[in-house]
Amino acid sequence: MPKVEINSKVCKACELCILNCPKGVLALGKESNPSGYHYVTVVNQDACIACKMCAIACPDAAIEIYK
Amino acid sequence: MEKVYSVPSTKHEVVGGFCPGCLHGVVVKLVCEVQEELGILDRTVCVVGVGCCCITARHWKCDVMNAPHGRAPAVATGLKRMAPKDTVVYTYQGDGDLAAIGLSEIMYAANRGENFTVIFVNNSTYGMTGGQMAPTTLVGMKATTAPFGRKAEDVGYPLHMCEILNQLGAPTYLARVSCDSSPNVIKTKAAIKKAFQNQIDGKGFSLVEIMSACPTNWGLSPLDSIKFMREKTMVEFPLGVYRDR
Ligand code: SF4
Ligand code: SF4
Hints:
heterodimer, A: alpha+beta, 15% helix, B: alpha/beta, Rossmann fold, seven-stranded mixed sheet, 9 helices, 17% strand, binds iron/sulfur cluster
């Protein structure tokens, strides 16, 4: 079962991962990180197919994927 | 559970210095991945230009030199010619640095076919200095120094660096790629890897022009910047491999 790990400290809430995920796995959260960004959270882990599209698009290297 | 995507070990884990949605971050990550895959970290030197590209300095684990504005190709020339033979040298420059103040340096380094790699990030603006008009600003596009939009009859048209450099005899590899989507990011990485491999193989001058976004100075959200790239900047600057030999 794939797993998406978000490094909430470095996320800047740009939403590019959300734009590139084909399965609607990610969404902006309500909590903010020390830099003040409402970092991305995993809202639908079961739908993830470990395609890595989110991580590849992330400018802040905030995502790692396990399969 | 197997890790199928990890942050490259050749990159410092820091809170990035770029604005949200700035694609410089993607390019830095890709260059680090390529250094890791080619196993060249301990013999690689980055020559950074001036502008937002300076922010990359805190990310690289390889050695870094900062050149005076626009002069990165000249500094890289001296370094590459004098350093131990297996040293890998690349410049990391933006469009203001490379296509305006550094136009002469990039033209002559390319014309000499210097054996280093150029990573050229084109976001159609001067980012760090506050959104002034760059050589790559589109006709009609607003900038702090062109509040009513760039007027061609006054300041001419955008410079297309891949096409201009393609007029020269010496360059080995000239490609324009984009980081607007994951599939395009994958293609960008392949182009960067080729540009480094060419240098390792002693083939000569390789330049990768990477289309990027500047949400802050474009005055758009990260998602709207991607849209602007697809509808405007990537139309003005067509993607493609202009030279490969
Ligand atoms: S792409 Fe990266 S920085 Fe942007 S919102 Fe997603 S995880 Fe955060
Ligand atoms: S790995 Fe693919 S499916 Fe899973 S969250 Fe990332 S983009 Fe979505």
